[in-house]
Amino acid sequence: MDLKKQFLKYLQYWPWFLVSLIIFMSAAFVFIKVVPSTYETSATIFIDKKQEDQNKIITISTDKKSNEDKLEDEIRLMTSNEFLLGVVKNLDLNFSYFEKVYTVQNNYVNAVPFVLIPTVSKDSLPQISYEIKIDNQGFTITDPDSERVYTVKGYDGKEAVYGLPFKIRLSANAKKKPSYYFENEYKVSLVPTSEAVKNLKASLIVSSDENAKGVLEMKHISSNPDRSRKILNEIIVLLDKSIVINKQKVYANTVSYLNQRIKNFTKEKDSIESVKEKYLQNNDIAVMDNYIVEKTADRSQKKESSLLNEKQISLASFAINDIKQAGPAQTLGTGYNLESPTVNQMLLNYNAKLLDSQLILQRASSNNPAYISLMTQLKVQKQEILNTLEGYLNFLNQNSRANRSEQSIADAKVKSIPTKDKVLGNINSNLNTKEETYVALLQKKEEAVLNGAILESNLKTLNAPETNYSAIFPQPKAFMLGAFLFGLLLPFGVTYVRLYLDTKIHNEEDIQDVIGDIPILGHIPKINNNEKLNNTATSHSLIAEASRALVSNISYLLPRNKENKGNVILFTSSIQGEGKSFCAFHNAITMSNLNKKVLLIGVDLRKPQLHGYFNISRNSLGLSNFLANKSDDWKEFLHKDNNFSKNLDVLFAGDPPPNPSQLITNSNFESLIEEARKIYDYIILDTAPVQIVSDTLNFSYLADVTVFIVKYDYTDKSNLAQVSGFIKKEQLKNVGILINGVNLKTAYGYGYGVSYGYQYQEVKAKRPWYKRSLSVKEA
């Protein structure tokens, strides 16, 4: 960072700094002289939390850390409105008395030679101030706001004056010699009680000492030290009384609660025992352990019975399938292990008859009537066996459903055992707790009675209220130093914000910070309308000199043309209004005045501007007409007769087309440029802004040099960042930057400070009054 440059940047605004310092230093000096000094009065008290914990009837604490240093409750009490209301009433803080020393400053006085007697409630007192003088007739009271004067005759305070919220009389000491106070002037400020409480709360600071447990520091800030000490003393007295009263309330409430709790204890115990009795009866429980054994055994029995029944179902199903698959001459099995004697006997009978049929078959043929009769009987008997088995199976299924229901009931009873045991355990635990609590309550009652008999406060005053007579406000040295620093920081801050928020381009460094690798081709000064066209070959105007310097710098960017073709120079900018048409126009004139054949083409088909410099109609035929119809010869649209140079031809934009982007990208335009290169030394293209439309980027590759226009105090730096992207992507080639519209009166850093050109050293740029202290040569 160049510190010298940064210093000079702010130094140019030195009058602002000087004026700010004068204002703030003067205001601080007057403030110190006018405002009464404010003093701090402090006191320290100690609250013994250990004693308080020992005297507690019931102590419940889950914190491992001791609560001895926690004084939040006391701090909240001392700063509460209700507590401070007592201080206001006891010290009569609705009235503040001052002795007038001079008109801008008053000295607070604690004792005045008169007494005010309010005629309205202190809560409804108006917030107002009165000036009071004592004379030989009585009192003269003035309202400085309305300048109304009240006269009270006599010193006894019996007269009530309409419009005054109080009566006034001399104090006992002042009555002895009233003339002693005739030359003095006093001021009395009245505030309602609510406002007095608010003022007291704002001026009171109560905090705990971090290094000493149980210590409270109280501070009161006021311009009257005597009154501050009285306020702190009154706070200590009221706090002490409040502690004792709160303890009395706690002990009284505790004893009352213990008596009531002991009285109700018997009823609560009986109620719990009744609940236990009903619970045992409703659940058919005599002894919980026996109940558990009984229900567990019942569930096991039901489960075993269900398993046997399921086994019989499986066996019966197997027997049915086996019998169905057996042939007419096959014996039926008898080892199915069915618990049905009927079925087993029928199987035995069937097998016996089957044996008889086989004996008959051995002695006779299968056509024997006896054999046929016996086989018919076997078939019928087999069907009877199957029917009997089906009936047995249905019976087993019914038993299975009944067993599942009974087993579910038994399981539910077993599962409910933990819940019932838990409920019964809670009832027993509650009974035990009641018995233990009863004993504890009796003990606490005795402790409460003893503590109430020896009740005392645990507050002690460590340091009585003392006033530090070194004024805390205003402190002259610190106040003047603060005013000096603020007087510097304010204009510095304003200047910094102004410079920080300014994103416009003002010099070459602003451009180089964004795109530092792009050369600066020149600077076009800001000129008035009368100077715009003064750019002839013999002219020494500012615009002429700047244009010649631009042409010279552009020549260094032009590539060496080995084919003797004309060079294409493209003028563009970021946005509208930066003066690209203006610069292209003057550059074309300057080049044509150097005996070079120049073709100036208006390629901005959307908002053409060149016709304005030649005083012709905007709708004149030109480029758009040729591009729309290639059969036309573009030379027919040239304007050769102009008042600027015989070497300059102009091809205006022509009629505004509906599709400029499509029109400019067809091959007609490229053909025009190639043909013009053979005729002209330079082809100047006045194009559209690159950030608004893409027209220029579509044919930028045709240019040998791209002159990018930025305008002084107009172009934003963010625009340059976007253009830098176009350059990196090679959408714009061989780019140089031209700064347009440089204000010679305010520009800093361009070299225009004294004059422009060797011919015009007498033309001096005027600088603002706040910059004249800087040497213009530094620019």
TrEMBL record:
<dbReference type="GO" id="GO:0004713">
    <property type="term" value="F:protein tyrosine kinase activity"/>
</dbReference>
<keyword id="KW-0067">ATP-binding</keyword>
<keyword id="KW-1003">Cell membrane</keyword>
<dbReference type="InterPro" id="IPR003856">
    <property type="entry name" value="LPS_length_determ_N"/>
</dbReference>
<feature type="transmembrane region" description="Helical">
    <location>
        <begin position="12"/>
        <end position="32"/>
    </location>
</feature>
<keyword id="KW-0547">Nucleotide-binding</keyword>
<dbReference type="InterPro" id="IPR050445">
    <property type="entry name" value="Bact_polysacc_biosynth/exp"/>
</dbReference>
<keyword id="KW-1133">Transmembrane helix</keyword>
<protein>
    <recommendedName>
        <fullName>Polysaccharide chain length determinant N-terminal domain-containing protein</fullName>
    </recommendedName>
</protein>
<dbReference type="GO" id="GO:0005886">
    <property type="term" value="C:plasma membrane"/>
</dbReference>
<keyword id="KW-0812">Transmembrane</keyword>
<dbReference type="InterPro" id="IPR005702">
    <property type="entry name" value="Wzc-like_C"/>
</dbReference>
<feature type="transmembrane region" description="Helical">
    <location>
        <begin position="478"/>
        <end position="501"/>
    </location>
</feature>
<keyword id="KW-0472">Membrane</keyword>
<dbReference type="Pfam" id="PF02706">
    <property type="entry name" value="Wzz"/>
</dbReference>
<feature type="domain" description="Polysaccharide chain length determinant N-terminal">
    <location>
        <begin position="13"/>
        <end position="91"/>
    </location>
</feature>
<dbReference type="InterPro" id="IPR027417">
    <property type="entry name" value="P-loop_NTPase"/>
</dbReference>
<dbReference type="GO" id="GO:0005524">
    <property type="term" value="F:ATP binding"/>
</dbReference>
